[in-house]
Amino acid sequence: EKQPCMPTHPQKPLIIKTGVQFTTKVRLLVKLPEVDYQLKVKTTFDKDLPPGRVSRQFFILTNNTKVMDIEDYSNGCLSVEFRHLQLKEKKYINGTKGNEGLLSVTEELHSLSFEACFTVQGLTIDLETCSLPLVVISNVSQLPGGWASVMWYNLLTDEPRNLAFFGNPPRATWSQLSEVLSWQFSSLAGQGLNKEQLSMLGEKLLGQHASCSDFQVSWSKFSKENIPGKPFSFWMWLDSILELIKKHLLPVWNESYIMGFVSKEMERALLKDRQPGTFLLRFSESHLGGITFTWVERKDNGEVKFNSVEPYTKSRLNALPFADIIRDYKVISDGVVPENPLKFLFPDIPKDDAFGRLYNSAPNKVQPYIPSMLIPISVRSNGSISPPTCQSPEPPMTPGEFNMLSQDLCLDLDSVSVLTASYEP
Amino acid sequence: EKQPCMPTHPQKPLIIKTGVQFTTKVRLLVKLPEVDYQLKVKTTFDKDLPPGRVSRQFFILTNNTKVMDIEDYSNGCLSVEFRHLQLKEKKYINGTKGNEGLLSVTEELHSLSFEACFTVQGLTIDLETCSLPLVVISNVSQLPGGWASVMWYNLLTDEPRNLAFFGNPPRATWSQLSEVLSWQFSSLAGQGLNKEQLSMLGEKLLGQHASCSDFQVSWSKFSKENIPGKPFSFWMWLDSILELIKKHLLPVWNESYIMGFVSKEMERALLKDRQPGTFLLRFSESHLGGITFTWVERKDNGEVKFNSVEPYTKSRLNALPFADIIRDYKVISDGVVPENPLKFLFPDIPKDDAFGRLYNSAPNKVQPYIPSMLIPISVRSNGSISPPTCQSPEPPMTPGEFNMLSQDLCLDLDSVSVLTASYEP
DNA sequence: ACAGTTTCCCGTAAATGC
DNA sequence: TGCATTTACGGGAAACTG
What is the pLDDT of residues B80-124, one digit of tens each? Predict the structure, then answer.
């Protein structure tokens, strides 16, 4: 009769972190005959759970009883919202923990129960309901693992409260799973995953079987086992990319400028016939939460060459937004002047047409100082260790490049003169 | 009879943050006749303080009673150490807060009391002592203000417990204060302040009077009033520099490479006659927690010109250590190739002799990728808006500069070939 | 010794109080 | 309303604990 809404974590419902406030709401779906007293609802954590079923026990630290009220903005049904609830672990329980540590903490499922009791015409009626299974974590570092559990559960069962689910978790078909993975991106950023991106993910997870969309993926392969040769699981890797997008790449991702999930073979095949300076953006497969660009160039002998920059991770993106990295990236070859090798976003969009609106120009013009900015560079030797010639074979920086940089540093012509001024107090 | 040790905050004793654990120790300085029961000590916060004396009231959340024990490593006297003590504010006290908000929270002084009681031969003896005045804060953002109070109190009074001290705080002579300020640096970093640095600080605080070392500084001028034209007080400014040193400049500071506190006039006078490319390091006076370098150059017409870079603050220093900024800093003038204008640390130490040991070279050589690094640059126009000439008047990058950069990127010659490799899976 | 897990707490942001 | 102060909690690191 009651439909409990779930405790909410920003973006990640059904995960509760100890010591952090959460909110939950219960609604009474049937109209009750008028009762002359207030209907109290009590919330209990892991009510009636046989001890030993879970290895950790928690309790609600704060007030867990509240009176139902007519819901605003609705057809007048009764509801109650619990706010500022907080979970704490019970310590020193008699006897050791149950569950024998077979499951990790993020696989251990819990639930919130709601109870109310009222009397009509001598008849005592008990109402009770409970939430979908919950994961309890103690640190945000456990959030990815917790979210994997919530996804897997809700993808693969309709049971409202199978807390033993991860004792023997079912497999998912690739077609089910790929849809959920795409949702992770679209709910984060508006932009989901296209067929090509999903197929790369499928191959990564399943090898060549991915072509068969009802091939099955085990829970372990999805989020517990490490990817062969890597120190992280498939989901940990994918989640690190979701975090990277959320914090540093949202606008670029939403414009679909990040191909992201491309195998290196595919990458080469795509870039091979493109004009030199064509580049694409791809997530690192070797490191968590990294993005790199790969561009194609043609050597004097006509040979095609591919280059990928060391992936940028959150620490560098904190210092410099990704669009600015693309704008300012320079390669210094053998002491020759810096040049930005990135010209066209694959397939053939001039770089500034794509990223122009996303550039963050305008360094602070603090009066007596010369503005400064960070730019990303690579130094590349062409193999000859001998010092470079002293006369540059090409102009040090084209007028166009110079003007672009100047625009970054001062927004209008008047202020150019400011840059000229030496320090004069 | 008892000598209480103070609750300790890392580096900042006598400041307690609510909700954060602190430690305190009490020692019994007299030998007691043997007592056959254990001597219990009780700790109380703001014991016997007349309500209204302080505007906020706190209590010790955790166990506040402990038994004294023979102290290790000592002449066998009794002592007890309270650990994991934690303070919490009493809310909803009857009647409004006392003190009428004359004082800020960091000026409000509190104290910890320790009590013990024992009986010898029918004689009951009460022992009681208390700590030096304490400042209670609720957020680390209040730490600088709290530390200013602790310094001022302990500099200017020997009273053990004058909680009304900041009702009418005495002035400090500049000679007293300057010594304490120097201690802040030496206790942080080993290296204190020299005469020149102190004299600049004195002038900043007092104007020309600083020459007279017994000129007096008021509490307000030291830490409450803003510096004229600036949105922060003298102490807030100085403390922001202490934090900057602690987190980002420790080795450079300890080598005395940071002149730091120099007036702009003095700076010019020092650099004026030095060879071009001579630079010095100075803290920003206009912004909190910033460091800049100023270098001298000589124009074609012989005119001397001074340049200061926009100050680096913690956010940029997080991305790039300061020594590396000095190593890699480049100025692009009118599209001409980047050049590092920093040659000699004042007075005449070749840059790499001074900073060589402090450079953090070695970007990660992740195999298939081209290493990348961030470098700080400034773009400067010489006033002519016309595009730069296409032939560079000087070599794009000297062999020496190129070799330096190469060394940053690969530590041994063998690995140079790695840099050459294109991406080949 | 070690890995999984929790605790600790700074530092930023948001909320609250005055 | 604005400023002073507190609360909230993500995130990195240390501490814990079998």
Answer: 999 999 999 998 655 555 555 579 999 999 999 999 988 877 888
| Beta strands A278-283; A344-345: pairing state | parallel
B309–A369 C-beta distance less than 8 A: yes
CB contact under 8 A, A381 and B422: no
CA-wise closest residue to A273 among A326, A347, A196, A339: A347
Chain A neighbors of B276, CB-CB under 8 A? none
Protein residue nearest nucleotide C4, by CA to C1'? A104
Residues of B in contact with A402 (CB under 8 A): 332, 334-335, 387-388
A139 touches strand C (CB under 7 A): yes
| C-beta atoms surrounding B30 within 10 Å | 9
Three-class SS state of B183: helix
Burial of A414 (0-12, 13-18, 19+ CB in 10 A): exposed
Closest-approach nucleotide to residue B18, Cα vs C1'? D6
E-state strands within B210-342: 216-217, 278-283, 291-298, 304-308, 330-333
Q: Helices then strands (H, E): number in chain B?
A: 12, 22
What is the token pair recorded at B189?
Answer: 């970093």
DSSP A162-225: -TTGGGSPPPEEHHHHHHHHHHHHHHHHS----HHHHHHHHHHHHGGGGGSTT-EE-HIIIIIS
Closest by Cα among A197, A204, A267, A312 to B422: A267
DSSP tag of B73: T
| Residue A18 DSSP code | T
* Contact indicator for B52, B122 with CB cutoff of 8 Å: no
**What does the radius of gyration of chain B's CA atoms come to, in whole angstroms?**
29
The residues near A397 (Cβ < 8 Å, ≥ 6 apart) are A337, A338, A405, B332, B335, B336, B337, B388
Q: Which residues of A are less than 8 Å from B298 in CB distance?
A: none
Contacts of A351 (CB under 8 A, 6+ apart): A326, A327, A342, A343, A344, A345
CA atoms within 13 A on the CB side of A110: 29
Contacts of B270 in chain A (CB under 8 A): none
Q: Spell out which residues of chain B touch residue A422, defining contact as CB-CB under 8 Å.
A: 305-307
Task: Indicate the pTM of the whole model.
Answer: 0.85
Whether CB of B23 is under 7 Å from strand D: the answer is: no
CA distance A202 to B219: 68
8-state DSSP, B100? G
Using a 7 Å cut-off to protein CB atoms, list the covered nucleotides of chain C.
4-13, 18
CB-closest option in A332, A381, A416 to B420: A381
Q: How far is B387 from chain A (nearest CA, A)?
A: 5
CB–CB contact A366 B310 (8 Å): yes
Q: Rounded to the nearest 5°, which phi and psi values hold at A125?
A: -115, 125
Quote the tokens at residue B16.
Answer: 């307690």
Encode pLDDT of A13-71 as tens digits: 999 999 999 999 998 887 776 666 778 899 999 998 766 666 899 999 988 888 887 76
Which stretches of chain A score pLDDT less than 50? 3-8, 383-400, 402-425
Inter-chain CB proximity A319 and B374 less than 8 Å: yes
Range among A208-212, A392-396, B203-207, B381-385 with highest mean pLDDT value: B203-207
Rounded to the nearest angstrom, the gap between the alpha carbon of residue B306 and the centroid of all alpha carbons in its chain is 28
> Considering only CA atoms, which of A165, A161, A162, A108 is closest in space to residue A137?
A108
Whether CB of A141 is under 7 Å from strand C: the answer is yes
Residue in A267, A301, A381 to test binding to B, most B beta-carbons within 10 Å? A381
* Alpha carbons B247 and B411: distance in angstroms, whole number: 27
Nucleotides of D under 7 A from a protein CB: 4-13, 18
